[in-house]
Amino acid sequence: MTDKKAAVLVAGSWGTALAVVLAENGCSVTMWSRNDGQVSEINEDRTNGRYLPGTTLPERLAATTDMEAAVREAELILFAAPSSAMREVAAQAARYIKKDALCVHAAKGFEQVTLKRMSSVLAEELQRPEEEIVVISGPSHAEEVVRRCPTTVVVAAQSQQAAEKAQDFFINNYFRVYTNPDVIGVEVAAAIKNIIALGAGLSDGLGFGDNAKAALLTRGLAEIGRLGSAMGANMLTFAGLAGVGDLIVTCTSSHSRNWRAGSMLAKGMALEDVLHQMGMVVEGVRTTQAAHALAKHYDVQMPITEQLHAVLFEGKPPKNAVENLMGRGRTHESEEVAKDWSPHQSRPPHI
User: Where does sn-glycerol 3-phosphate bind (predicted)?
Assistant: First the structure.
């Protein structure tokens, strides 16, 4: 991978962590940011203190506010912008990207107004076939990746060639990368697990213990499966790294912004104050709105999402939301599992 050039848009925590992986794999990496101060810090101090304090960045990694300079020679473009900014960043970069450059995104959410997945947004703005867009996802805290903790993720694309090219860019001895053709499943799982992580933070913040959180994760996985199936995903994807793997790590770690936000809400903080104190994007908040709308559109039951929507946007007390979930009508688990994980919709993922 030596002498390859990569661009990372933008310089948040996950984008920076993946930029470090690329640089350590021999790529010359340019990160793009709108913030002059952040660019100066990266180039002069070799740090990105707001997003990854205590991390020294590799010499092969540089930063710029010039979009053309960042992407014009890059063979890999990594879009690591929040879902709310993805279309704007892609539109700004599109005119400068080489025709044969590999385009990968690392966002975990839906576009708020259109409810589109990020691969669809990128395909539209970059005017490329959607099957060539790659998504990278899986259980991967940025704070641990930059410490070279063993991490395993998935790159998904309809084009096996594109997925394997992305795999070659990222894989190394601490960052293992599998391929998977189920872009829909990987993107849905990446987005909805943030909602469940908000719920896990609420549950922990209320002191409800491990029993409650285990139930929340299990039923949350069922919600991911229901929506994913309705949107055309392969159900087996949700049993893998992008599904249950990412769900576990996001719902059980204090590194998770969504878990921390949920815990703050449980302690009585207003949503606006939580987001201000966090100082970084909490994707689960916007995703709750999008998933609430998608559940209605596809006519699927997502009770956890529904209750979190009520807490976040309708002023419902978190404790009441949990009580409503526990008080739902009785049913048989075997019937629920059979319905949610019907095998006729599944096909084995390629890994």
Answer: 108, 138, 140, 193, 246, 256-258
Co-location of 260 and 130 in the same domain: no
Both tokens of 127, joined, read 């005017």
The mean-pLDDT minimum among 12-26, 73-87, 297-311, 317-331 falls in: 317-331
Among candidate residues 193, 296, 316, 339, the one labeled active-site is 193
In this structure, the chain runs to a length of: 351
Task: State yes or no: 281 annotated in a binding site.
Answer: yes
pLDDT tens per residue, range 91-131? 999 999 999 999 999 999 999 999 999 999 999 999 999 99
pLDDT in tens, 184-212: 999 999 999 999 999 999 999 999 999 99
In a domain, 349, yes or no: no
Confirm whether pTM is higher than 0.85: yes
What are the φ/ψ torsions at residue 103 (nearest 5 degrees)?
-110, 120
CB 237 within 8 A of CB 348: no
End position of a domain, from candidates 126, 156, 181: 181
Same domain (yes/no): 148, 190: no
